[in-house]
């Protein structure tokens, strides 16, 4: 019997040593990557300092079936626009209004780390134009002077917008007997090209206005079908203004209008203080949990602390690799998940104690304790994961950060409790029946 057990025990001890060395190596990588700045933690706005801008999208002219695509295009356009100004790791995301909100609303949230000047942040995004192509309504008087008040009554809703734009460039029109005039030539993507070709073919002789930020730039008459998917914006341009317009269109013609509805600025000092307090809270929390586990569960508790350290290292590595944007709420979720990680070990150790009282030896008590505690651990963690998924799906960006960190922590805690703690306990070998051995593997104030 000993010959059958010994190889298994040696194998489990080798696995345990390998897990320890892997944890040490992973921990060193997390530390050195942070110190060296190669793979740093991504900190949210409340920790790094910066400006958050919240915009409401005006989707009144967008069909319901195109809302998702329009918001995705808006997000990509704003992100491309912000990247031009060298803002480090900007976060641009869309957000729907809550399920129980009185009205459906789509929002765009822009976080600019390191930018604490709100007016500057608004300016960076405010220069982005909204490009629209609108047809003059049947029977409308094309000779009327266009104003912001009468444009909605004279022109139909936008047929083409900036989301159909492929690119824009400065050119000079070649007029016979006249000086060259700077114009902006725009090209549509495949979908826009087809729409433009159909519209120009079916509406020859009608006025097709080009609007930028709601202001008419040009109101040409369609002379013939234009199948090549290109259009010319002409007007009172100087070469410099035409060049700026082409640049702005290339780097951010908005597919839908947006309205600024909220701003928030966090200084770098407050962010650094929040990080320091979050780390301090995490260290105190892990320290007290470790002391309790060692005091109450002795040797199994000590092994659980080693497993807990590996859990912390693995989760921190995940935060770097995914990467997860850490906020103050996320740090709170991480500290909370540490308690969840220990909870599974507590269930296992209590089941082990019951097995030993039933007369089982150490190895059998460990195996039975893990197998019989598994159902409770599984159900508890699944309910926590469901909660995290619901919070992430329906919550705001702040709640989503909490939910993501909490969900990852719960999954990792379940894995470390079932695999790492079990491997350490079996590798230790606990079949001794001496009174001292039983005391080491008991819990609380039990004597046997």
From TrEMBL:
It is a multi-pass membrane protein. GO terms for biological process: intracellular protein transmembrane transport; protein targeting; protein transport by the Sec complex. Residues 152-256 form the SecDF P1 head subdomain domain. Its main location: membrane. It holds the Pfam family SecD_1st. Residues 259-429 form the Protein export membrane protein SecD/SecF C-terminal domain. Part of the Sec protein translocase complex. Interacts with the SecYEG preprotein conducting channel. SecDF uses the proton motive force (PMF) to complete protein translocation after the ATP-dependent function of SecA. Belongs to the SecD/SecF family. SecD subfamily. Forms a complex with SecF. Part of the essential Sec protein translocation apparatus which comprises SecA, SecYEG and auxiliary proteins SecDF. Other proteins may also be involved. This is Protein translocase subunit SecD. It comes from Candidatus Kaiserbacteria bacterium RIFCSPLOWO2_01_FULL_50_24. The lineage of its organism: Bacteria, Candidatus Kaiseribacteriota. The gene is secD.
């Amino acid at each position: 019997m000993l010959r059958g057990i010994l190889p298994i025990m040696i194998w489990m001890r080798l696995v345990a040593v390998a897990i320890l060395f892997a944890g040490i190596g992973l921990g060193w990588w997390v530390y050195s990557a942070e110190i060296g700045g190669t793979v740093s933690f991504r900190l949210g706005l409340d920790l790094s300092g910066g400006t958050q801008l919240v915009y409401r999208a005006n989707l009144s002219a967008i069909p319901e079936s195109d809302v998702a695509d329009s918001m995705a295009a808006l997000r990509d356009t704003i992100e491309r626009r912000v990247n031009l100004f060298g803002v480090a790791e900007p976060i641009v995301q869309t957000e729907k209004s809550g399920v129980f909100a009185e009205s459906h609303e789509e929002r765009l949230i822009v976080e600019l780390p390191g930018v604490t000047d709100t007016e500057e942040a608004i300016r960076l995004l405010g220069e982005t134009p909204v490009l629209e192509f609108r047809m003059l309504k049947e029977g409308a008087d094309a000779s009327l002077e266009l104003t912001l008040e009468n444009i909605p009554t004279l022109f139909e809703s936008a047929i083409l917008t900036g989301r159909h734009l492929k690119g824009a460039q400065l050119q000079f029109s070649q007029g016979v007997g006249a000086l060259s005039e700077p114009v902006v030539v725009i090209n549509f993507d495949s979908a826009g090209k087809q729409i433009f070709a159909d519209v120009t073919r079916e509406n020859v002789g009608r006025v097709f206005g080009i609007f930028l930020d709601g202001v008419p730039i040009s109101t040409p008459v369609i002379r013939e079908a234009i199948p090549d998917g290109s259009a010319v914006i002409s007007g009172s341009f100087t070469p410099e203004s035409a060049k700026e317009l082409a640049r702005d269109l290339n780097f951010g013609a908005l597919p839908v209008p947006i309205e600024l509805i909220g701003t928030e600025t966090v200084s770098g000092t407050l962010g650094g203080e929040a990080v320091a307090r979050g780390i301090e809270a995490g260290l105190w929390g892990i320290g007290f949990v470790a002391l309790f586990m060692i005091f109450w569960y002795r040797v199994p508790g000590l092994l659980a602390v080693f497993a807990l350290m590996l859990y912390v290292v693995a989760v921190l590595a995940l935060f770097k690799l995914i990467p997860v944007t850490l906020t103050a709420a996320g740090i709170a979720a991480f500290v909370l998940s540490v308690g969840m990680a220990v909870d599974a070990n507590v269930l296992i150790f209590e089941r082990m104690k019951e097995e030993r009282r039933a007369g089982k030896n150490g190895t059998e008590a460990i195996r039975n304790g893990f197998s019989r505690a598994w159902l409770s651990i599984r159900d508890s963690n699944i309910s926590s994961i469901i909660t995290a998924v619901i919070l992430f799906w329906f919550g705001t960006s702040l709640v989503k950060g909490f939910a993501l960190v909490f969900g990852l922590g719960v999954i990792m805690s379940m894995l470390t409790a079932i695999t790492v703690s079990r491997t350490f306990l079996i590798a230790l070998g606990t079949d001794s029946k001496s009174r001292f051995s039983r005391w080491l593997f008991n819990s609380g104030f039990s004597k046997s």
